[in-house]
Automatic annotation (TrEMBL):
GO terms for molecular function: UDP-glucose:hexose-1-phosphate uridylyltransferase activity; zinc ion binding. NCBIfam families: galT_1 (TIGR00209), PRK11720.1 (NF008724). It catalyses: alpha-D-galactose 1-phosphate + UDP-alpha-D-glucose = alpha-D-glucose 1-phosphate + UDP-alpha-D-galactose. The keyword Endoplasmic reticulum does not apply. This is Galactose-1-phosphate uridylyltransferase. Fe cation binds at E154, H253, H272, H274. One of its GO terms (biological process) is galactose catabolic process via UDP-galactose, Leloir pathway. The gene is GALT.
Length: 327
């Protein structure tokens, strides 16, 4: 952290995003790549991705009998979900009712796609630094006919912990973090957000329910309300850290696998969400996961306890709202 920096500087995120740009394919009433016209939506809006990475009718690959060249078809669906009709809003600047609408739509799609697909991945890439190609507030939802690598690893490790200790791993972990307090960023009666003990990204966080919840659709009504609240608080702190629209990749491991696993014993699973922000020292200096970290092991630039304390001590009033009041 003290090393002089003469490396790459990132361009700070754009703050003067037009509220509604007719040329933006995610805006209400706009025409998308293949000619479809968006409805004049007023809340969330979901559509099939115009450039899907997964398709339901993907062909089988050619057979190869050598174990080093195994392959199988990857089938699925890819959807885009707009959070709000305005391009100049992000989740922390939306109302709690608007965030709750996002959570309800996530749940609805998870149930719909999870009826047939084993894995439904909800994720948001926020900011150009994280590869987001459009500033309009949105996420993606991919459903696949297989368990992806991260999901498969989490399934095995949670199952092993449950078998050895008789309790879901992330439920036990949340209880320990709630007792120790040192890595908590924000918390309420139903949820807590921590910088996880194993964090490698500078301000990485993990969002956990306090009770055992297998899947997103198992949340109670009040837990969805408190989820909207804690998301708004966390994301406001993120933005306030460097007073920018904070970039990150986040995603729900929206609980146990679905499809053929719906009737299986998945009591080892615990619903949770990961947030992976890239920024390290400032709005323009990011962490680079290169060299030793790619070839040997990830290194921490600051401890989880330091990162949690910095985030915890930030105000929960968004810096842009402060500016408006001052003006």
């Amino acid at each position: 952290m003290r090393r002089p920096w003469q490396g790459q500087l990132e361009k700070p995120p754009q703050e003067d995003v037009p509220r509604c740009d007719p040329a933006n394919p995610l805006c209400p009433g706009a025409r998308r790549a293949h000619g479809e016209v968006n409805p004049k939506y007023e809340s969330t809006f979901v559509f099939d991705n115009d450039f899907p990475a997964l398709q339901p009718d993907a062909p089988e690959p050619d057979a190869d009998d050598h174990p080093l060249f195994r392959a199988a078809s990857a089938r699925g669906m890819c959807k885009v979900m707009c959070f709000h009709p305005w391009s100049d809003l992000t989740l922390p600047l939306m109302s709690l009712a608007e965030i709750r609408a996002v959570i309800d739509k996530w749940t609805e799609i998870a149930v719909e796609l999870g009826a047939s697909y084993p894995w439904v991945q909800i994720f948001e890439n926020k900011g150009a630094m994280m590869g987001c190609s459009n500033p309009h507030p949105h996420c993606q939802i991919w459903a696949s006919n297989f368990l992806p690598n991260e999901a498969s690893l989490e399934d095995r490790t949670q199952q092993k912990h449950h078998r050895e200790r008789g309790v879901p791993m992330l439920l036990e972990y949340a209880q320990l973090e709630a007792e120790r307090k040192e890595r908590i960023v924000v918390e309420n009666a139903d949820w807590l957000v921590v910088v996880p003990y194993w964090a490698v990204w500078p301000f990485q966080t993990l969002l956990l329910p306090r009770r055992h919840v297998c899947r997103l659709q198992d949340l109670r009504n009040g837990e969805k309300d408190s989820l909207a609240s804690i998301m708004q608080r966390l994301l406001t702190k993120y933005d306030n850290l460097f007073q920018i629209s904070f970039p990150y990749s986040m995603g729900w491991h929206a609980g146990a696998p679905t499809g053929p696993y719906l009737n299986a014993d998945c009591s080892h699973w615990q619903l949770h969400a990961h947030y992976y922000p890239p920024l390290l020292r400032s709005a323009t200096v990011r962490k680079f996961m290169v060299g030793y970290e790619m070839l040997a092991q990830a290194q921490r630039d600051l401890t989880p306890e330091q990162a949690a304390e910095r985030l915890r001590n930030l105000p929960e009033e968004h810096y842009r709202l402060d500016r408006k009041e001052a003006a």
